[in-house]
Design brief:
The complex is a heterodimer of chains A (120) and B (114). Chain A has 120 residues and is mainly β. Chain A contains no helices and twelve strands. Chain A starts with a strand and ends with a strand. Chain B contains no helices and eleven strands. The interface between A and B is medium-sized, with 30 and 25 residues.
Chain lengths: 120, 114
């Protein structure tokens, strides 16, 4: 069964600090996708990144970077020079094809989320 | 601006009452989803629809019902059979039903029991 673990329930930092949010996943599939979503206080989840299992290149987007390591089944997210606007709940998610049922939707599993608070 | 609109933002349910949560999208997306979020937990899938007039149960469909009569709309009814309905409900959509698709979310409805 697939599983996503975000061991850090809450993280609190002061503005301009770097912070890393951990994500560890379990899957038997060799083909899968990993996602990160941000949920600000307004409630809606906002897509941040999608990575497929065959692309282990790390990615940087402005102050955000992602480290994908298949050897440790981890897909960690780092925010450099954090800002107050980064305060949110961050979710890691794993998506696999539905091999048994044959549907096109597949199976998407979310982690429990990490609450990040950035203090001024 | 394109997006997903959920209403109401807050909803209260009395014992034995059915309530309906609205979800409308103008993104022209084929697929729509309903998720339930409980404090300290990830999102759990209630129902999804890949196309108009078709929908499938997710992981926690008991006590819920949906319809998809129009591409833009995917209302969720929380029935009296749902014994623990207090939660934050999120509607989402994706361009196609594919499992690799990114999701677009509405701003949610907080449902509480009176």
């Amino acid at each position: 069964a697939q599983k996503v673990t975000q061991a850090q329930t809450e993280i609190s930092v002061v503005e301009k600090e770097d912070v890393t949010l951990d994500c560890v996943y379990e899957t038997r599939d060799t083909t899968y996708y990993l996602f990160w979503y941000k949920q600000p206080p307004s409630g809606e989840l906002v897509f941040l990144i999608r990575r497929n299992s065959f692309d282990e290149q790390n990615e940087i987007s402005g102050r955000y970077s992602w480290n994908f390591q298949k050897s440790t089944s981890s897909f960690n997210f780092t925010i450099t020079a954090s800002q107050v606007v980064d305060s949110a709940v961050y979710f890691c998610a794993l998506s696999e094809p539905d091999n048994a049922g044959g549907t096109s939707y597949g199976k998407l599993t979310f982690g429990q989320g990490t609450i990040l608070t950035v203090h001024p | 601006d394109g997006g997903i609109t959920q209403s109401p933002k807050y909803l209260f349910r009395k014992e034995g009452q059915n309530v309906t949560l609205s979800c409308e999208q103008n993104l022209n997306h084929d697929a729509m989803y309903w998720y339930r979020q409980d404090p300290g937990q990830g999102l759990r899938l209630i129902y999804y629809s890949q196309i108009v007039n078709d929908f499938q149960k997710g992981d926690i469909a008991e006590g819920y019902s949906v319809s998809r009569e129009k591409k833009e709309s995917f209302p969720l009814t929380v029935t009296s059979a749902q014994k623990n309905p207090t939660a934050f409900y999120l509607c989402a959509s994706s361009l196609t039903p594919g499992w690799s698709e990114k999701l677009f979310f509405g701003s949610g409805t907080q449902l509480s029991v009176l």
